[in-house]
Structures are given as C-alpha cells and as structure tokens.
Amino acid sequence: MDIQFKPEDLAFRDEVRAFLKEKLTPEFKSAVVGGQITKDAIVAWQKILYEKGWIAPNWPQKYGGTGWNITQKYIFENECAEAGAPAVVPFGLKMVGPVIYKFGNDEQKARFLPDILQSNVWWCQGYSEPGAGSDLAALKTKAELDGEHYVVNGQKIWTTYAQHADWIFCLVRTDANAKKQEGISFLLIDMNTPGITVRKIDSIDNQHSLNEVFFDNVRVPVGNRIGEENQGWTYAKYLLTHERTAIAGVPQSKKAIQSLKDMAAKEMSGGRPLLEDPVFCAKLAKIEVDLMALEFTELRAIASLASGAAPGPESSILKIRGTEIQQALSELAVEVCGHYAHALNVETPIGNDYAWGVSAKYLYGRASTIYGGSNEVQKNIIAKAVLGL
Amino acid sequence: MDFNYSEEQNLLADSVTKFIQNDYSYEARRKRTASADGFDRATWNTFAELGWLAVPFSEDDGGIGGGPIETMIVMEEFGKGLVVEPYVSSVILAGTALKAVGNADQKAELIGGIIDGSRMLTLAYFEPQSRYDLFDVKTTAKKDGGNYVINGSKGLVLNGATADTLIVSVRTSGEQRDETGVSLLIVPANAAGVSITSYPTLDGHRAAEVQFSNVTVPASALLGAEGQGVAVLQQVADTANLALCAEAVGMMEKLYKETVEYTKTRKQFGVAIAVFQALQHRMVDMFTLHAECKSLLLRAVMTAASGDADARRNISALKYAIATKGQKVAHEAVQIFGGMGMTDEMSVGMYLKRINMINTLFGNGDYHLQQFIAAA
C-alpha cells in the first residue's frame, strides 16, 4: 500500500496540465459555467481529446483506449474536472461503445466504434418506458422480424438529449412469450429512420434535456442487433454496471466543492463572506468528508477491477453515494446563492453572476437518484447480490 | 389552551378550501403563470369580494380584524393550490407595514385600496448585497427641500411589475449596515426615474429588479418615523414568515397525500409500488415531518397571536423546520414520483420550487437557526 504518486505519475500529471492549459481555451470554460453546455462545445472538446488519443481511457487499447493504469486515469479525470473541461457525454463513449466492443461482431465494431471515438455520431439511450422504469425488464417496445428487418413499435421515455442524437441504442422485446428478462434484444437504430418521433418533456429545471421517443413501424436491419436475439438483457446489465461506476462523479463533485467555496467567498452574510460562517462551513465539511470516503471507495473498486475482477454489484454503492453527494452539493449551492438562485433566467444572469444556472443544475440533479436504476433499486441489488438477503 | 377554530375561522377555512378545490387546479394555475401579469386579475377581484384581502386588517381600517390565525388559515390553503396572485406582496408585506406605522391618510388610501382590490402594492426591501439583513441598505434618500430624492436599486421585488405602488426601504442616514437610519418611502411605480425589469421566478411567480434614479417623492411619502424603518421591516418579516410557513405546511400536506395516491396507482414489478415497505416507511416519514411542521406552525402562530415574548424565537424554529423538513418532504415526493416528478406536468416539482423560494425569503434555515440560538 502506498498513497504517494511516483515521479512518473507526477510527470504524467504535468503533461495533462500542460495539455489542458493549451487546449482548454476560454470559450470552452464560458460554455461550462452558467446555462447548459452547447452540443457544439462538447463535440469540439471531445474531438480535441480524440486527436490527443485521450478520448476513451477505459477502453481496451486495441479499440482505441489509452492503456493507462488506474493512477493515470485518476489523475486525468481529476485534472480535467478541476480545469473545468466539459464532461464527456456518456452515451457513446461510456455506454454503447463498451457494449459494441464486448458483444458486437467485427462488422459492427468497424462501423460504429470509430465514429464514437471521433464524436462524429451522438448517441442516446432507449431503455426506460412509461411502464418500465425501475422495473426495466417490463419494457414493451416490440421488434418483430420481417425478412431482413425488425419492425419496431413502441415508446421510450426520459431519453436525455434525444433531440441531438443521430443514433439510439434500444432494448426491445423480440419474444413476447418468454420470461420477461429473456425476450429482450439490443438494437442500434438510426434516428433518421422513418417512423421515429422525438417529443420534448417539459422538466422542472426549465432546460431541454428529457424527451419521449416514439417508434411507429420503424424498420431496423437485423444487422443492427448486438449479439444474440433475446439475449439483450445480459448486454443491458453489463452496460448498467459500467454506467454506475461512471455515475459516481467524484472529480466533478471535488470541483463543485471548490466552486462552492468560491461562491461563498463572494456572497456576503452578516457583513462577512459566507465562507467564514461556521454553520455553512460545517455543512460543507460534512459533505467533503462523505466525498473523501467515496473517492477511496471508488479507487478501491477500480483497483480491484484492474487486478482482473469483474465489476460487481458493489458499484451500486458508488451510484448511491455519488448521486447523494452531488445532490447535497447542488442544494448547498442554491442556499449559498440566496435570492438570485430563484430567478428563472436562462438567457442572462440576474443579480449575482455566480447564481446563474445553480438552480437548473440542482433541479436536474434531482433525477440523478432516479436514473441509471433508482437508488432504491441499487439498494435492492446490494441487499440481494452482496448481502444475500 | 384551545386548538379549535372559532365559528368565523371555520367559515373562512371552508370558503378558501372550497375555492382552491373547485377553482384552482394545477392546470388553471399554469394558465395564470403563462399570462402577461403572471396571475389572474378576475381571481384577485374574487378574493376582494370574498373578503380575503381584508383578513389581517382591523375593523377601523376597513378589515375584518383577523390576525396571525386567520392569515394562517388563508395561506395554508393557498399553499395547497400554489396560488400565484400577489397576496403575499400586497396584503402581507405592504399591508403589514401600512398597518404598523401608516398615518390616517395612508391607511385610508392604501389599506382601503388593498382591501377593495383596486390597488396592488409591494415591498422593495432586498438589495443584491443584503442577503437576509433587513438593515443592510445602500439605496439612499436625500432630503431636498420638502422632498426625498431616491437613488439605488432593489432586487427580487415580488410582483414588482404589476404593483402600482412600492414601499421602499431607503437609507436616510448612517452607513450601509447601520441598524438605524433606514426609512420607508411610499413610491408610485410610475414615478419618473423608476425603472422596473420583471422576470419569472422558478416557483412560477414574478419578481423584478428596480432601479431608482433621482426619484423624487414628497415628505408625505414617509411611512413611519424617519430612520426607524428596520423595526417595521422586522415586524413585516415576522408576519411574512408566519404566512409563508403556513403556505409551506399546506404544500407539505399535499405532497405527502399526492405521493401516497401516486404509489397506489403506479405499478412496477407487477404490483402497485405502494406495497414496498421501503417506500411505505419513507411516506410515513413525510407524514411525520408534516405533522411536526404543522405543530411548530401552530406554536408560532398562537404565540404571535397572543403577543408572547418568545414569538420571534418560535418563528425562527418554524422557519428552520420548514427549510429542512419541508424541503425533505418535497425531495422525497420527487424521488418517489420518479421520472414523473421531474416533469412540469406534475405539481410536485412546483411545490419543491416554491418551498425553496419560501426558504429563501426573509431568512433561510441556517439564518434562522442562528437567530434561534441568539434568542435563547
């Protein structure tokens, strides 16, 4: 056991810092603070990472990964978050990409992986349905074989950024008679296929993140199916386990703590900066302690993965605590900003600049304990699969 | 000690409850918030006709002689309906200041106008740097002959764009954070030099940033004694906190009840999710948190109504409880509603946003916890 960085780790950190200093220009930073990040800014940043060869640190090297050890990944993620780099959109790089290189055939790998790595294609996730949320396997969207095509009919919901998406990866029912987990297949669908309609959901954060996606006799080539027919649940579970690790968001929460301190240094309370208020400091410190625990819990899990273990149900801990900490931090940000946190102003800031966007982030963040398998479902997983209850 | 309403109080409660149930659905509320004013003037006239705008005013001033209890009755039901008409800004904020220190002419004109619905007022008391300190006032009013000349700016003025008259806290002497030297001036919204920028707030209400540039008002615009405005503002804050917390308690009741109903209809894993004990216990907690806040509300309202010395400490206890327990109930409702809780189609998210706004107005939980400690 050794907590210290080695000289080569420090050299790597300097390399990452130099890269961020050069490439993360002020335009990217201004797209991060305040309102929602633009699609263009995200894509531009992801392309810069691709050109550097750093877009997919978690992929195997033969598919375009970096070959970094866990210390290097840790350093990279932390430096990017601390510098305020746009977060990589997970749907292609962290969700469907790993499913394709793990379960896809060679043709699918050749066709889809390069566009994911180069951010040429924006993906979205077609999992949840109105009647299939926590109980995902209850999904009803059906795909019926018709020659060389599946004909897809049904509806997906809560589809984040479907309005930007070129492709959607979908769980569909291909066998209505099988036990519910056993009749599901995993399809890749071009969003431009006739019969697909995207409808915006008006959400409590007043931003456009969530959508419904409707499928009306959408014809999907059989070649777009990943793996075996009716085995989609296996691939979905693999993806969800990966999603849960990515969802912990430790570097982003560390950055959020720094932002909170910066805001609290500016916000005056009782004639002094709020940052000097012991009640506020105690609240922030409590979250910081939780985050320190989470960071090491995640590092222990990653170290175990690196030594060859498969991601286990313990990743549910990371999802539960990670999202709870994100929510606690965004709640505190709203408190710090006081009155102006409650102005509904998506175009320009009103009052104090630093209050701009904190409520939208807080309100959208309420979803983090709901999506990716609600935290209640995560607790059921731990109870069943870890504790044997 | 008696926890029962009087006959008149029961009648008031019945009439507000029926109105909210019959005429103030969430859909109807959404139409109001989308309108130009952000509320419905016909509804405002109905409030006047039903006597609700007269509730906190004495019979001498043309009111019905109600106090904290009657205001609580109205506001608790308004909370359930998420009422957006400018009751808090006009009746509670401006009304309390006028009631406290208005002279006969001011009361006759302005309280009379509030009660019959012909006038809408608001209170401009917050400034971008002042957070929860009512005495932190940079906006100045300088004597110029028989007039005051106002310069400065006020933030988050509730219903600032639809009020015809603003009661403005200004510094007539001393430094920015002195407790004395703050005065209240009655300023017509259309006075030369007043500029009002309106914007919606997350809770579906409206607020405004208001700039004063050499705005001149006569000496008769002074409300109360010169330099003694902070005590009046504190009295307004106490009354407002009682009203806003009553609103929040009404919302908490709706939140736990609507969550219970939703879980009976939402099916996952082949059953209504209401059967899951993990959720049942959380809904029991929501129910309990509401009961606690209702108790603290009654405690604060009843001590305020009888003029007890510890009334203000009880208000701080209540406000801290609403900030923590009220927000907790709303967070739980969104969580248990799942994705649906994230949509504007459901009211639970709007209750959350209104509770958060209430937590901020006139001191958040941390502020009141410290006030509570200081008052011990």
List the helices and strands and how they pair.
The complex is a heterodimer of chains A (389) and B (376).
Chain A: H1 7-23, H2 26-32, H3 39-52, H4 70-83, H5 90-103, H6 106-117, E1 123-126, E2 142-146, E3 149-157, E4 167-173, E5 184-190, E6 196-200, E7 211-221, E8 225-226, H7 232-246, H8 250-266, E9 268-269, E10 272-273, H9 278-306, H10 315-337, H11 358-365, H12 375-386
Parallel strand pairs in A: 1-4
Antiparallel strand pairs in A: 2-3, 3-7, 4-5, 5-8, 6-7, 9-10
Helix pairs in contact in A: 1-4, 4-8, 5-6, 5-7, 7-10, 8-9, 8-10, 9-10, 10-11, 10-12
Chain B: H1 7-23, H2 26-34, H3 41-49, H4 68-81, H5 87-101, H6 104-116, E1 121-124, E2 140-144, E3 147-158, E4 165-171, E5 182-188, E6 194-200, E7 206-218, E8 222-223, H7 229-265, E9 267-268, E10 271-272, H8 277-305, H9 311-337, H10 348-360, H11 365-374
Parallel strand pairs in B: 1-4
Antiparallel strand pairs in B: 2-3, 3-7, 4-5, 5-8, 6-7, 9-10
What does this structure look like?
The complex is a heterodimer of chains A (389) and B (376). Chain A has helices spanning 7-23, 26-32, 39-52, 70-83, 90-103, 106-117, 232-246, 250-266, 278-306, 315-337, 358-365, 375-386; strands at 123-126, 142-146, 149-157, 167-173, 184-190, 196-200, 211-221, 225-226, 268-269, 272-273. Chain A is α+β, with helices and mostly antiparallel strands and 389 residues long. In chain A, strands 1-4-5-8 form a four-stranded mixed sheet. A four-stranded antiparallel sheet of chain A has the order 2-3-7-6, with no helix packed on it. In chain A, helix 4 packs parallel to helix 8, helix 8 packs antiparallel against helix 9 (278-306) and helix 10 (315-337) runs antiparallel to helix 12 (375-386). The radius of gyration of chain A is 22 Å and the shape is globular. The two termini of chain A are 33 Å apart. The relative contact order of chain A is 0.09. The mean pLDDT of chain A is 92. Chain B has helices at 7-23, 26-34, 41-49, 68-81, 87-101, 104-116, 229-265, 277-305, 311-337, 348-360, 365-374; strands spanning 121-124, 140-144, 147-158, 165-171, 182-188, 194-200, 206-218, 222-223, 267-268, 271-272. Chain B has a four-stranded mixed sheet with strand order 1-4-5-8. The longest helix of chain B is centred in the middle third of the chain and has 37 residues, at 229-265. The mean pLDDT of chain B is 97. Chains A and B meet through strand 9, helix 9, helix 10 and helix 12 of A and strand 9, helix 9, helix 10 and helix 11 of B.
